[in-house]
């Protein structure tokens, strides 16, 4: 960082900004990229890692505000380069904070947890702010060596906290930073609702993880009295039916909902019922390998009762209208070709080679 010089006038401050802001632009970008890569490698979920350098207008205002309180120089400003880490849920905030402490040299005296400053009886802006430098180890790397004397600020918050901060900054400051009392009260009530939603999302995530673990343990013990869910379908095939050699065990929301709807219409509404049907079917027929969960379950329902599947479960061309020769050949193990052809014609099912 440049050595401190005495700045007396507004023009002096402006010139300092013009002559010194460029390195902070590069610093903000490289820190954001480094954090994002580290989050990915540590498998910590996040929404985004935006970055920015302080604008000249914001810089000038902060200098003027600080100088009115005490002696203050541009070098004292720790947020000329700013990075935000936006997470999905509250529990990920702590994971990010722990990671940041291992990556950079944190200036504890300048860092703050806004939630702790609010206390237990207030609601409002919540975020964790770190003031850092790159640290002794990282500053030895060529890409960081130019920034070894610079500070930067990292803010860590959830998506809901971020949304609230943006709304509060944009809407609140348009009235000079203070709203009329009756509007301010509603503003704070809304902040409390968002904080409650954040906590509930976090609790739900924990409970879903616990449910997934409990379900996994139950499947291992062949206790399958669970309603059909995408988590249950994935774990059933992943843990109990590896021999089917299915691919694409992940079920997107849309595909998962479609499949569960089709199974329910076919009167399969629990993992136990599905498990029984699978065991019965694979004892009689050899199913296609390298199929998906969706494809396998549709083959299963059709081989059990093709008429019932198309009358009750098939949702028309919006669901599917194309199949492959392997599925057709599989169905001939139970049905006559004339019967299959008649059904496929009625429901406008086309047979197409996979590579076409």
Gist of the model:
By secondary structure, the protein is of the alpha/beta class. It has 14 helices and eight strands.
Report on the architecture of this protein.
The protein is α/β, with parallel strands linked by helices and 356 residues long. It has 2 domains: 10-201, Beta Polymerase, domain 2, CATH 3.30.460; 224-351, no CATH class. Strands 1, 2, 3, 4, 5 and 6 form a 6-stranded mixed beta sheet that branches. Strands 7-8 form a two-stranded parallel ribbon. It contains 14 helices and 8 strands. 24% of the residues are buried. The model is unreliable at 1-5 and 117-125 (pLDDT under 50).
Task: Please name the defining characteristics of this protein.
2 domains, 14 helices, 9% strand, two-stranded parallel sheet, alpha/beta, six-stranded mixed beta sheet, Beta Polymerase, domain 2, elongated
- Stated plainly, the CATH topology of the largest domain is called Beta Polymerase, domain 2
Strand content: 5-15%
Radius of gyration: 30 Å
| Count of individual domains | 2
Query: Number of DSSP strands?
Result: 8
Second rung of CATH, namely the architecture of the largest domain: 2-Layer Sandwich
- Report the CATH C-level class of the largest domain: Alpha Beta
The largest pleated sheet is described as: 6 strands, mixed
Mean pLDDT score, rounded? Answer: 87
Structural class: alpha/beta
| Poorly predicted runs | 1-5, 117-125
Proportion of helical residues? 40-55%
Provide the CATH superfamily of the largest domain: Beta Polymerase, domain 2
Number of helices: 14
């Amino acid at each position: 960082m440049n050595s401190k010089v005495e700045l007396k006038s507004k023009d002096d401050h402006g010139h300092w900004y013009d002559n010194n802001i460029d390195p902070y632009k590069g610093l903000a970008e490289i820190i954001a990229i480094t954090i994002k890569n580290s989050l990915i490698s540590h498998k910590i979920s996040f929404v985004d890692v935006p970055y920015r350098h302080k604008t000249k207008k914001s810089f000038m205002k902060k200098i003027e505000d600080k100088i009115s309180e005490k002696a203050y120089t541009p070098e004292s400003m720790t947020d000329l380069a700013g990075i935000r880490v936006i997470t999905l849920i509250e529990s990920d905030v702590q994971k990010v904070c722990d990671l940041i402490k291992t990556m950079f040299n944190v200036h504890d005296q300048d860092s703050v947890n806004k939630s702790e400053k609010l206390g237990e009886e207030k609601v409002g802006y919540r975020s964790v702010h770190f003031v850092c430098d790159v640290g002794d180890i990282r500053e030895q790397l060529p890409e960081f060596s130019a920034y070894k004397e610079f500070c930067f600020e990292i803010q860590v918050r959830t998506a809901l906290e971020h949304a609230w901060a943006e709304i509060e900054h944009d809407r609140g400051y348009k009235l000079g930073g203070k709203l009329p009392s009756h509007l301010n009260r509603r503003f704070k009530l809304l902040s409390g609702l968002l904080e409650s939603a954040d906590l509930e999302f976090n609790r739900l995530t924990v409970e879903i993880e616990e449910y997934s673990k409990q379900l996994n343990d139950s499947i291992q013990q062949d206790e399958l009295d669970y309603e059909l869910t995408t988590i249950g379908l994935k774990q059933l095939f992943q843990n109990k039916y590896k021999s089917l050699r299915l691919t694409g065990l992940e079920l997107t929301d849309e595909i998962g909902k479609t499949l569960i709807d089709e199974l329910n219409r076919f009167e399969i509404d629990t993992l136990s019922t599905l498990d029984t049907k699978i065991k019965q079917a694979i004892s009689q027929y050899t199913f296609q390998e390298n199929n998906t969960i969706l494809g396998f379950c549709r083959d299963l329902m059709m081989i059990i009762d093709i008429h019932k599947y198309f009358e009750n479960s098939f949702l028309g061309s919006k669901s599917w209208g194309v199949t492959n020769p392997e599925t057709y050949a599989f169905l001939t193990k139970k049905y006559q070709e004339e019967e299959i052809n008649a059904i496929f014609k009625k429901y406008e099912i086309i047979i197409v080679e996979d590579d076409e």
